[in-house]
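chain below, 433 aa
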Amino acid sequence: MLDNNEGVDLLPSNIELSGLEVRLINAISRESVLKTCINEVKKNYDTVLVDCMPSLGMLTINALAAADSVVIPTQPHYLSAKGLELLLRSVSKVKRQINPHLRIDGILMTMIMPRTNISKEIMATVKSAYGQRIKVFDTQIPHSIRAVEATAEGKSIFAYDKGGKVAAAYEQFGRRWQSLARSRESKIELTAYDDLFETDESRAEANLSKIREIPIAEIDEFPDHPFKVLMDEDMEQLVDSVRRSGVMTPATVRQKEDGRYELISGHRRKKACELAGLETLKCEVKELTRDEAIIVMVESNLQRTTILPSEKAFAYKMRLEAINRQAGRLPKDNLTPVVSDLETTRTNEKLGKEVGESREQIRRYIRLTELVPEILQMVDERQIAFRPAVEISYLSEEQQYTLLEAMGYNDATPSLAQAIKMKKFMQEGKLNG
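prediction:
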């Protein structure tokens, strides 16, 4: 047992631990060996943390048998996300057969590189697949070379780099986890998740998130999908990756009444498969209503590195309309109903919080959907600035085409002040079509 000045006693492993797995096979009550050891000393500590290796062997089973709760760290890599399903099955099995009080406190995303597409895609996949049943902590542990250096120095991240981003993230997570542990109402029980793994195969089949290879010919595009699939250098790299390794992150689809599938997220992956000559696409099949599918589609695509103003405009509009429908029938004098009878938050405020925009910015983006296609394309190509384009959107279609012709003739675009003046003249009936 190693003592340090940070208030933690550390019991590290060594190479001999590798042979313990074999010796446990013939041990009496082999699943409870670790629990027996911990019970002898846990009265001396506020918390006992057991760090498990990334395997589902007897040592991990011992840890689950001894634990009160589980925090599942996972990296934004395909294999880590894939292993979540196997781990959750093991947790569920241990709860049913060995430790009925075991619960999952949540999933913690670690070694995050927020600027990479793979990190964004895996995080979106994890939240989509498990977020409704298991808490996915908002706190994310970033990737940092300082954490690697701390391990090499044999120090904790707090001792090695106390002011760094990794230490700050772990400190924030620690506070949230302690708050969760103190609140019995906030702890996540496994009962609902266990339903996925009952021996009733028909129920398991109906409830499990299904990942399967689906013929591309049976997958239809999402109606009015606002996001473009660009044939650029990123697409070329994705096609090469698909040829070499296949699709690492499954697309998300829902099955339609006619038996075909509707693509919710993964449009670039589907196109890459087509260009690579593949006939099937790895997909997660989810049971979603139309509005739920719209919300998932917009949320997953907003994780992209580059998003055009037109894409945001139609995506925000579709998502807000879906949220409005979920909130109930719109009163005649209220275009942004409250989220529910128990909340006073307007739906556009809710959307703004979810996507990190102000309510007014959401309104401005949605106004862009009133632009004629040619002017909207100019906004995407940065030939017209965002704010003047918002004001131009109030002009009628005929007036916008007249303006488009004038811009082409003069090789110039209106400033914000000019656009506001045109809008005012239009409202006063002084602007000719």
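The chain has 20 helices and nine strands. The first helix runs from residue 20 to 24.
thats it, cya
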